[in-house]
What we know:
Elements: E1 24-34, E2 39-48, E3 53-61, E4 67-75, E5 83-85, E6 88-94, E7 98-110, E8 123-136, E9 141-142, E10 154-168, E11 171-187, E12 195-204, E13 207-215, E14 221-229, E15 232-244, E16 247-254, E17 259-276, E18 279-292, E19 295-307
Antiparallel strand pairs: 1-2, 1-11, 2-3, 3-4, 4-7, 5-6, 6-7, 7-8, 8-10, 9-10, 10-11, 12-13, 12-19, 13-14, 14-15, 15-16, 16-17, 17-18, 18-19
InterPro entries: DUF7064, DUF7065
Domain DUF7065: 130-188
Domain DUF7064: 189-304
Amino acid sequence: MLNPVQDDWLAAEGWQAAGDDPQWSDSFYFGGGDAVRRTAFYTRIGRRPNEGTVDAAIGIWLADGRFALAFTRAEAGPADGPVAGGGLAFDPLLPGLVWRLRVAADARVYTRAEDLGVPGAPFERLPLGGELTFTGWTPPLHFDSGLTAQVAARHYEQPGSLAGVLTVGDTRLPLAGAGMRDHSWGVRDWQGVPYWRWLGMLVDPDTFVLLNTVGTADGGETAGGYLMQDGVLAPLVRARVDGDQLGFTAVATDDRGRGVTLTGGAIAVAPLRQRRDGRLTLVNEGLTELQWGTRSGLAISEWLVQTDA
Length: 309
């Protein structure tokens, strides 16, 4: 059954009341780009009120192969405050539909995204700036499956259009393309998730797929997502992803019995590190080329991998 966020999505478009767990988290994410200009970005603001912190990050893949990353961790503001931190701000202009992203941060700019994982890799410090507007194609879509207790208690996603301009130093990056956003809250135990695979392909408002698979502690897997095809939206009931982030096939079926197959691979991967209690988790953000039948596109895939510290 289709389960969009309905009665409670207006209340869900801001910080949520915290639970008691020290790792209770509340995070907003946007990602997408411009396939014609070969430019893409992701950005996240995550609040951990019981630890008193807010993290803000933005990563930008430039068409010339460079990758810009800005990250800050600061003291968390009040629960009724704005979704903002570290020079980033996400403003709900029309909650559930239109958001403005504002960027004014200092970044490390690497020759390539993979250099994030290379100790001592050279980088240039440059300012980031700009504004983007996100406009949803559908109401926010709630995920009943594809989650575990270590990922989030609640999660919704929304595909949409992105437009605006970002700047990296003196480089101006106009964007006009597609993207998605999500909001998750509940316990977020980065080291407690065996793995996850998050991806999607956004063609137009009548044609898109959002898909994820998450490993469970007992060695199993849960999957979630939505398929919009020919203007008909339905939740996914089965999905699997074979291969690794550099080359994979994702196969899914919705509750109407319609199937979808995506093939592709990341062409530039930024390995982001999450450390806790001597353990290291990599959240690999990948600029990804995808194929869906005769359609091709540029998207972002996210692979969570547990590794040795």
